Amino acid sequence: MKKERYIVGPDTARMLGLGHPWVIADRFTRKWKGGKPGDVVELQDQAGACLATALLDPRDRIVARVLAPGRVDLNEIWIAKKVESALALRREYGDFEEDSACRLINAEGDGLPGVTVERYGRHLMIQWYTEAWKPHKGLLLKVLQDRLAPTGIYEKFRPRQTRALAAEGEDRKYSRLVNGTPRSGRFAVRENGLSYLIDLEEGLNTGLFLDQRANRRYLRERSAGRSFLNLFAYTGSFSVAAAAGGASGTTSVDASGSYLEWAEENFAANDLDPSAHEFIEGDCFAVLDDLRRAQRRFDIVLMDPPSFSTTRQSTFTTRGGTSELVAAALELLPSGGLLAVSSNHQKTDLADYLKEIRRGSLKAGCEARVISVMGQPVDFPYSITFPEGRYLKFVLAVKI
Predict the structure, then answer these.
(1) Are 60 and 100 in the same domain?
(2) Domain that holds residue 294
């Protein structure tokens, strides 16, 4: 089938030549005529040479996502090869339990731009990050059903304005069952030998951020006999890991009381008594101040905030709030205490993030020595030509 041809500017042509999978809207793309989300198009340089085959999404900031260099056909055979390659990588380098949760397809990192697939027990969750997949999603559904035979498949179109939507409430439904049998309510999946309750139908997220698997294991292995403070605790997965690792006590802080109730359920799901641990509902900045005034001390402090959050008392952004959080957290750590600082903000690179942590250390008037910088696990691969794919930054520093 003949594809429409679209000309890109010299800067975009250079980036495509380097293997970058996105075409960002610019003065050249604004000249493109016609086209609708999901059109499979050929990208050309100004000399008419074919650079890549891409999926068009003319209303998005990313107006085209590259399927492959040169000319290819988007069909079941092509998608099946991509899926098989992704599954083979996880079989070779992963270590996942049969009923575990993991990411099977990581969008651009597995050559299927703008779509992720996650496994939760015997169910799959597809997340579409672009409308360009709508005309073709049946192809992926068929391949997944044929290769994996899941009990059910859910889909979720990730909304662009997630900040505003998240503020509307935690119980809103964003996913729908597209194949097989539903799995309503919370149910347990396995990770590193622990159970976590997830929900495939309610809210923007399932209750477990899979990209933190290796980092939860790392802190679990270092928690024995230590007190653990978990800021922006969400459903308490890090706290559960620390408690299972023998922490002397965990304190989980979150602005959402319903998430903290979920956290208590996660403790109970692992035969850990929630009443032996502390759960504090409130703004993390205010709680940090209260803990400082009470002269509380913790051996490990973790902060894993969303890139943007708002409470009645404060607004947090990665670029505007990390240093303040670090400064406040360091005051609660004794000498030799471990600070874990995490961000999934794609637009903040590691060098800038470390600068924010340095500013926090200077504000606190103490030295923090970085001992490790970690990122995503094996099921979140990214292409070496796509630095945006390395979004997760997990910095471990010891207070001197």
Answers:
(1) no
(2) 209-399
